[in-house]
Amino acid sequence: MFILNNNDPVPLYKQLYNQIRELILSGRLPADSRLPSVRDMAVELSASRNTVDGAYQELYAEGYLYSKPRSGYFVSALDQDTAARSLPASAGKHDHLPGPPSCFDYDFHPARLDPESFPAELWRKCFVESLRQNSRQLVQYGDPQGDWGLRCSIQNYLERSRGVLCDPDQIIICSGLQQGLDIVAHLLKESHSVVAVENPGYHLPRSVFHNHSYSICPVPVGTGGIDLNHLKASSSTIAYVTPSHQLPLGYVMPVANRLALIEWAESGGKYIFEDDYDSELRYHGKPIPSLQGLRPEGNIIYSGTFSKILSPALRLSYLVLPYSLLAAYRRLYRDYFSPVSLLEQRTMAKFMEQGHWERHIRRMRMLYKRKHDTLLRAVEHNFGDRAVVTGQGAGLHVVLMLPDAAHSEAEIIDRGRQKGIRLFPFSDFHVTGQPEATTLLLGFGGMNGSEIERGIAILAKICLS
Ligand SMILES: Cc1ncc(COP(=O)(O)O)c(C=O)c1O
């Protein structure tokens, strides 16, 4: 019924949007008709699910469609006379305008998860059970530090899987890394003013500590993680690190360096903020045990999240505070309430208690390993020895260095956009300096195998010619 033209400058999702909209306005798609599922429509059109989803989302946002949970999208009832008059005289007049930034056929953004991966049925089951069992608690505020049952489940999981040794008392349920960093910045600002961050590294810690008036000290990262000599020579008294999978380079900090980092922290009341954001996703061998487990009684603040394996939309993460900070935390946050919904916390606790969490981790590890392997094969096939891959074997992205690329990063991103490719600028991870060669960050979580293969083939043409 619909025809998409790859040679048309109008983005594919917009072509589909226009065709469906026209059928609705002309009455040929009557009210309450059900649209094919995103997956079926994508198969029918030989297009990506992102294309179909982009068209449906826009039609839904504009009121042409409504959705029913677990049933899909349906055509909204419109006044047909008025609707017919709203058909544009020259449909598609503004179609050359760029589409919304989220609609790309090949989305290499590193934060994308597999769009079909959320375990909605299991989550619904746990949610309904929590609702039934906790209705009396839902008329109260709940524990400000987070639900006790969830904290016990997290403690148990962290000890078995990450080697983190702590009491549930030390765990604070947060609404994401940003809130965890905010708490830590707040707790430490009386006696600390300079924070070391990895360079290249994640922008969020820089931003949060900067907003709390800290000075930011960028410290270079090598294959062994944050450069310890540079760190020791700096005036930093807090170090934010991603030792199990450095973002963005993907290096694992070896144990000798971990011990040296701990020694640095122990010399004079310094603190390590260990961001263990995606360590469940290791595709060869066992996950790397945490830094915190090497010195559970030390000044290490451990941070973990459910965003990478389960869903970033839930906004569920946790901090493990060292005992040395607990009294200050309780004093400063005495009057605060938990920002995370109790129902969501109890649902997560149930999800963990019933074993779904660890089964889900195993499923996600397999799913993402397949995508990771597909990406590496496609890079090998299309780039050959003209690219060097680093950071493979873990997480949701790899880094691609192009020593003799024909174009700069900005040119590649721009040309990619014109071909439906979204790239996250690697240079954004740098506080100072830039990589020696053109470097690309390739997230693979949000695309299926054939999208990864096609995306890499197009990208190779852009980069190498
Ligand atoms: C380095 C790093 N830490 C943590 C997170 C997760 O943050 P949150 O728990 O706020 O979703 C991310 C997400 O992309 C990340 O890149």
| CATH architecture descriptor name of the largest domain | 3-Layer(aba) Sandwich
Proportion of residues in β-strands? 5-15%
Number of domains: 3
Low-pLDDT residue spans? 89-101
CATH homologous group name of the largest domain: Type I PLP-dependent aspartate aminotransferase-like (Major domain)
The rough form would be described as globular
Structural class: alpha/beta
Question: C-alpha Rg, in Å?
Answer: 24 Å
| Ends apart, CA distance between termini | 37 Å
Bound molecules: pyridoxal-5'-phosphate
Describe the 3D structure:
With 465 residues, the protein is an alpha/beta fold. It folds into three domains: 12-88, Arc Repressor Mutant, subunit A, CATH 1.10.10; 120-358, Aspartate Aminotransferase, domain 2 (3-Layer(aba) Sandwich); 359-464, Alpha-Beta Complex (Aspartate Aminotransferase, domain 1). The protein has helices at 12-25, 38-45, 49-61, 80-85, 120-133, 148-162, 177-188, 203-211, 228-233, 255-266, 323-332, 342-353, 356-383, 409-418, 449-464; strands spanning 65-68, 72-75, 106-107, 171-174, 194-199, 215-222, 225-226, 238-241, 271-275, 300-305, 317-320, 388-390, 397-402, 421-422, 438-443. The protein has an eight-stranded mixed beta sheet, sandwiched between helices. A three-stranded antiparallel beta sheet has the order 12-13-15, with no helix packed on it. Helix 2 (38-45) crosses helix 3 (49-61). The chain is globular, with a radius of gyration of 24 Å. Mean pLDDT is 91; it is low at 89-101. Pyridoxal-5'-phosphate (PLP) is lined by residues 111, 176-178, 202, 242, 247, 275, 277, 305, 307, 312, 317.
